[in-house]
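Slide 14.
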Amino acid sequence: MNRNKFRFQSKLYKSPVIRFLILLLGVLAMLLGLIGIFVPLLPTTPFLLLASWCFVRASEKLNRKLLTNRYLGPYITNYQSRHGITLKNKIYSLVFLWLTLISSAVLSPPWWWLWLMLSSIGAGVTYHIVSFKTLKE
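Slide 15: predicted structure.
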């Protein structure tokens, strides 16, 4: 496998204690990212990017496994390189984002500032997702 294909080149820490702590953080981030696939308010992408960042610094093998994963690898590498997101992923992300935000607003106390905060988050995330180039599947 050609390592130059990956955006982050290896920057392994020499201290085994620091590498272990960063590796632990990477595994935790990856688990939270995987949970975020099924829990819409928990962001998937930032956790997976954090996991990749940690693995680059702690374990080349785990980073390679993450980036060559059948499901997560293309998603992470396309995001890191800003190639884009498929239309299907954009629609899926936006539908679940707004369903979750609307249900949160409906089920929350009628505080205007909370609704404003939820809609601001939704608008920001929507802009971020829409601003990416759309990839063909």
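Speaker note: The chain has six helices and two strands.
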